[in-house]
User: What shape does this take?
Amino acid sequence: MWLPVVGLLIGIFLGFSSDLRVPQEYSSYLSIAVLAALDTVIGGMRAALQQTFDTKIFITGFFFNTFLAAAIVFLGVQLGVDLYLAAIFAFGVRLFNNLAVIRRILLARFTK
Amino acid sequence: MKVNRFHVYLFIVFLFLGFLIAFQYQFSKGSRIDSSYTYSVWDKQRELQEKLVGQKKENEALQQQIYLIEEEIRQIEQEAIAEKDTMKTVHQKLENARMVAGLTTVEGTGLIVTLNDSKQAKTLTGDVSSFIVHEQDLRRVVNELFASGAEAVSVNNERMVATSSIRCVGPTIIVNGVKKAPPFEIKAIGDPDTLLSGVEMPGGVLPTLRMWDLEVSTKKLNELTIPGYVGQAEIKTLSEEAVGEDNNEE
Assistant: This one.
């Protein structure tokens, strides 16, 4: 299990060390992307705990969700609708659902 | 160590996740700096506002000062007006003095006495001296007019002043250093009736002159203008007596 942790650390290091500046108007894209990635990872954890984890689904879900989130925000900007709120809402709800499921599984496992 | 393929995928995913999270964190921190920058802008704004308030207070103080100074100016102006009044009085006095001294053209009610040589003087041969106007006749008339209360007298528009002279030079008479010939028009400002009775006094000037058959006429006027003295009063030896000094030299 050490490899993903190393990956996480390297990613954090890269993120901190990069002095890439994103213009203000693209900040919402980034935040949605982060949310999508988090959602996918949490979803992956849940799937793993439920023994339904599929690597392909996880990997494609991760990138596709991130990309889709950014695309939705882009569409919202083009249409003048705050669609990123919808994305945040959807991802947030899913995030909490997944976390609740994980909690229950872990709870059931420990109380067993 | 066995490297699971699954772990490699996870590695990639977590790499991205870490990168995104770190990047976003950094970004939001940057925007926090931005927001703190706006705070500093607010601070600056507040500072400027305080400065503005201070300036306004200062303005008020200055306005107060202006008000006080204006008050002072008003006071000074009042004083100046009062001073002006005294100036006016002085000016008035000066004007009066000038009038009395005969330096200004004056007007008022008065009398005109006209003297002319007797008609006999033109037809007579021999000594006509008795039938022409002499300087002493003029002097007597002028004298009588002054005695009757004339305030200003002129002979042929030559104002009689303190230094005036009437002199005889051959066939003409010099008044104030200017040659004059008959007829002589003597103007006097004063009460016309008093002046007239003065000069027409029985045994007085005019009756005597008439006795010599000189042409004498008088005319009372309600409005008479007498010009001021034109010459210059030169002061060479005069000097004002020092006030308060004992002058008991006998």
User: Anything to note?
Assistant: Residues 50 and 105 of chain A are 8 Å apart (CA to CA). Chain A has a mean pLDDT of 83.
